[in-house]
């Protein structure tokens, strides 16, 4: 028996000013074969799972590309075509296979392709034919086109946001696809369109209960797998929006009814799952008059994990002007400032221009007299069971602020983004992180409270104000009732 595996992803924010070219993949994850044995990148985790489970089950494993770029603007067409054709050429070269498993994002857009993953999986289906089992694992921030569903035997998404279950879902996918290949089950997939744009934080109720009910229903009464594809709102595309995926054992009516019932449940929860977001002024007020303990404030609008630049200065400028103290803020994607600090050296004092370089949604640069208090070469953060590179990283002090800057654009995942410089979260009253939710896994156990701030940015969470003319149907909260 032969198993073919590949991993390819990025998350495309069609409003992002960041072009996604070849370097974005090369600097983050790009391994032409064998990433399951050589890479500790989190996105390669499913390949490790599938190699281990596949070999234990007696498959010869043929491993193709593992590539991931940080979320940004649309991928250059020539780069996409090269990545796609590399995977498809490997699949052809593998000869007859029994099973194909893809680890994809599901919100990758190229300059001339709205639905990269759908195109890839449909082309793979074309190559292997109808009788071969094709399984797809997606990030829950995916668009889920009809094409990718039609080309897959089993399709599921992560259930958790933060994505702490990437490898667990890879195990689910392997088991289901191995059962399908062996004829023990006959998976059938249905999708319900929720017509909603939102963020669901899965550690928080009532979303926690929704996810737990999905998990509890799996493996009984003919239900094989349930996923809530949260969708990725910052993409003007026909498939944008949340969807529920139900996979049943040979029962399309049950799949459809289950998916639709969950979609209705999600709709009923909409008010309770809507975030309370602070304004910039409210956030500064928290820093000026901090409650006891450590408060973490997430600058969700500048989340690199949603394709934002991660160099916006709106909050930094306001904190400086207000004279806030005992604050940490980061991480600013500013390779030039990092370079200047490294050259100046540890302990050096210099005039530093920070952030505000990428475009109008980043604000203007902030000029500060700083002291370099930490330098780390090739910093990494843990993310789930894997790693995410930060590049060279520095911490500078200016007044009562500690500011982290890094050279490879990424969000803050862990307190280590600050604590790698020998400080502790408890040194601060207020910690501002450029992230929307992934930081939660590492910070929640150590923070006294977590708040979210919305300012200008390419990942601004004011979904009612999103302009999505290509969505092709009404979406909440742009309209009050998208089914009216
Ligand atoms: Zn995601």
Detail the topology: elements first, then pairings:
Elements: E1 2-9, H1 22-26, E2 29-31, H2 35-38, H3 45-56, E3 60-68, H4 77-93, E4 99-104, H5 116-128, E5 133-138, H6 146-151, E6 154-157, H7 166-181, E7 187-193, H8 207-217, E8 223-229, E9 243-249, H9 252-268, E10 277-278, H10 280-288, E11 295-299, H11 314-322, E12 327-333, H12 335-344, E13 349-354, E14 366-383, E15 386-398, E16 401-406, H13 416-419, E17 430-433, H14 440-443, E18 449-453
Parallel strand pairs: 1-3, 1-4, 4-5, 5-6, 10-18, 11-17, 11-18, 12-16, 12-17
Antiparallel strand pairs: 2-3, 7-9, 8-9, 13-14, 14-15, 15-16
Function: Involved in peptidolytic degradation of cyclic heptapeptide hepatotoxin microcystin (MC).
Organism: Methylobacterium aquaticum
Protein name: Microcystinase C
Describe it for me?
Residues 297-466 form the Microcystin LR degradation protein MlrC C-terminal domain. GO terms for molecular function: metal ion binding; metallopeptidase activity. InterPro entries: MlrC, MlrC_C, MlrC_N. Its cofactor is Zn(2+). Belongs to the peptidase M81 family. By secondary structure, the protein is α/β, with parallel strands linked by helices. The chain has two domains: 2-268, 3-Layer(aba) Sandwich (Rossmann fold); 277-460, no CATH class. 28% of the residues lie in helices and 25% in strands. The chain has helices at 22-26, 35-38, 45-56, 77-93, 116-128, 146-151, 166-181, 207-217, 252-268, 280-288, 314-322, 335-344, 416-419, 440-443, and strands spanning 2-9, 29-31, 60-68, 99-104, 133-138, 154-157, 187-193, 223-229, 243-249, 277-278, 295-299, 327-333, 349-354, 366-383, 386-398, 401-406, 430-433, 449-453. It has a nine-stranded mixed sheet, with helices on both faces. A six-stranded mixed sheet has the order 2-3-1-4-5-6, sandwiched between helices. Strands 7-9-8 form a three-stranded antiparallel sheet, sandwiched between helices. A hairpin with a 2-residue loop joins strand 15 and strand 16 (401-406). Helix 3 (45-56) runs parallel beside helix 7 (166-181), helix 4 (77-93) runs parallel beside helix 5 (116-128) and helix 10 (280-288) crosses helix 11. The termini are far apart. The mean pLDDT is 97. The site of zinc ion has 4 residues, from loops. Zinc ion binds next to loops.
